């Protein structure tokens, strides 16, 4: 009752001003709510993108570190196998190279999955595919090199061992012939 009596006593300009004020407050509340909702969605999406990029960066750095460790172990294998023997060098270094390369390939598969989730797929996906193919090619070439080194350096069956035995036999044969002739 009081409100209707109050409303009837007001002049038209005050009624219009009051109505406009209420409309303005409602409009600002709706715009503010929509702005807040939109801002929260943008912040959430940006956080997701940043987190995905951090994961991608971590995976790439782990892959690079794995490749560097594999190269170092490969260098050590090639350097030390003539001194310590093929079998021991294989156990100490070559198995580590293979393990590192398998880990890099596993990480690159995980990286491929992460890149498919992110929005900038075309450039990142081609980079991941290149990185994965390089890791696989490196592993394949390393296995081929190991096969060749094994054919050269394997104990009892390797070419180096067989050449050493043949040289020893040739030396003994030459010494025996010289002893017989003298």
Which key terms come to mind for this protein?
182 residues; mainly alpha; 5 helices; rod-shaped
For the record, give the distance between the C-alpha atoms at the N and C termini, rounded to a whole number.
Answer: 145 Å
**Sheet of most strands:** none
Average pLDDT confidence is: 82
H and E string: HHHHH
Structure description:
By secondary structure, the chain is mostly helical. The protein is 93% helix and 0% strand. The chain is built from five helices and no strands. The protein has helices at 2-9, 12-84, 86-117, 121-153, 159-181. α2 (12-84) packs antiparallel against α3 (86-117) and α3 (86-117) runs antiparallel to α4. The chain is rod-shaped and about 145 Å long. The termini are far apart.
Summed up:
The chain is mostly helical and 182 residues long. It has helices at residues 2-9, 12-84, 86-117, 121-153, 159-181.
């Amino acid at each position: 009752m009081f409100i209707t009596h109050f409303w009837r006593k007001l002049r038209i300009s005050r009624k219009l001003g009051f109505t406009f004020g209420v409309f303005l407050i409602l409009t600002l509340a709706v715009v503010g709510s929509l702005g807040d909702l939109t801002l929260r969605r943008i912040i959430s999406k940006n956080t997701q993108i940043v987190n995905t990029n951090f994961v991608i960066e971590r995976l790439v750095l782990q892959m690079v570190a794995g490749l560097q460790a594999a190269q170092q172990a490969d260098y050590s294998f090639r350097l030390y196998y003539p001194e310590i023997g093929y079998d021991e060098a294989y156990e100490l270094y070559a198995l580590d190279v293979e393990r590192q390369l398998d880990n890099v390939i596993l990480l690159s598969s995980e990286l491929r999955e992460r890149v498919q989730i992110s929005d900038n797929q075309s450039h990142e996906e081609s980079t991941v595919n290149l990185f994965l193919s390089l890791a696989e090619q490196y592993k394949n070439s390393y296995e081929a090199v190991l096969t060749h080194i094994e054919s050269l350096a394997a104990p009892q069956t390797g070419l180096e061992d067989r050449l050493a035995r043949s040289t020893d036999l040739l030396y003994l044969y030459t010494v025996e012939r010289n002893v017989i002739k003298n």
